[in-house]
Amino acid sequence: MQKILDAILAGELDEVGRLPVPEFYRGVALHADETAMFEGLAGPDKDPRRSLHLDEVATPEPAAGEVLVAVMASGINHNTVWSSIFEPMPTFAFLSRYGRTSPQAARHDLPYHVLGSDLAGVVLRCGEGVAAWRPGDQVVAHCLSVELDHPDGHADTMLDPEQRIWGFETNFGGLAELALVKANQLMPKPRHLTWEESAASGLVNSTAYRQLVSAGGARLKQGDTVLIWGATGGLGSYATQLVLNGGATPVCVVSSPQKAQAARRMGAELVIDRSAEGYRFWKDEHTQDPREWRRFGSRIRELTGGEDPDIVFEHPGRETFGASVYVARRGGTVVTCASTSGYEHVFDNRYLWMNLKRIVGTHFANYREAWEANRLIARGQVHPTLSRVVPLEGTPQAVRDVHHNLHQGKVGVLCLAPGEGLGVTDPELRARHEPAINRFRTA
User: Fold this and answer.
1) Which of 27, 64, 321, 384 is in Cβ range 3.0-4.6 Å of 345 for a Cys bridge?
2) d(Cα 248, Cα 251) in Å, to the nearest integer?
3) Contact indicator for 359, 217 with CB cutoff of 8 Å
4) 324: Cβ–Cβ under 8 A, 6 or more apart, which residues?
5) Sheet of 24-31: strands edge to edge?
6) Which of 253, 245, 258, 256 is nearest to 270 (CA)?
7) pTM value > 0.90
């Protein structure tokens, strides 16, 4: 592994494909025999530091259409949080189901699960039939793993019955020194960014792009007003940038004065600190408070000059969904994914049906959407929202921090990279955008 890393750091990328691949590598993993460890505990009391292990695991051989990547950096996403606390179910059920689909997929059904749905790194080996990539290529990966054996996936790969999220519903994820991906997950690494900055955007930027911009989402247009929950979190920080880039107006909902400042640094002018203003959308565990929906809607109109949101960018789920449906404008769209506060959404359907509103469900992005989202990063039109970086050994604590919303933007993880700041090959483009790249580092 050290020889591979030395070649990458020296810029001798043509040598990488000729170096031997180690038989084992380190990865952040769950153990199948520990899935009952949190039984009886409430979600917030489940501690990822107990369930996540830094293990040495066997290196998989890339099969047809697959690529083995030396991972320089990765990132923390909410799917790693869910995996680590075994909610809504242990991910080993996903691996078992996948493993039954083919002999190639059976390699994923193991008593350990290497997690992680982001990476930036260098191609080491290519399986049979891979023509678009070769050893030494500097890449990032999106997290859509798809088989495309069914006709439903060929208009939109997200509709394929065998669509899965790599590193969550498959094994050999990116929180590791090596990772196994399908060749059609790879995209060029942005040349002006470091390894850790490049790794920060794959999942969340692509998800926000489909959710807001694409035909499969809300079809954002110039002049729209967009309510963004968690506007400085992983998803929300990219949503805010996409809304501003698209000529629309974000109304950013955050949970602290510090996060309000971060939203304004991105260029947002309309910001609601929901903690400071004391919004409580639930009277108790079972009863929502429509008076709070109305108070929230009045605050939005106060900021926008009387306009309701054309689009509500929903991802908290249960805690906020009733309010989201209420505040969307007549004929507006609530576009939803993730449900980080709970999957069971409760809302008053009168405000939906009688006002001709729409609820649109979105999930990650297809290859084309992910490529377009990555192109915006590579051009410096959207910037990574990396707030801090931890070593691979620090992943369990970082996952706990994200579980408890103690972060802004994205938390990066150094895998093979020995330190921050490496991997930039276009310093001139970087110099033009350095303040924006570092907006969340100074939060």
Assistant:
1) 321
2) 10
3) no
4) 227, 229, 312, 314, 334, 336, 347
5) 53-58, 24-31, 112-114
6) 253
7) yes
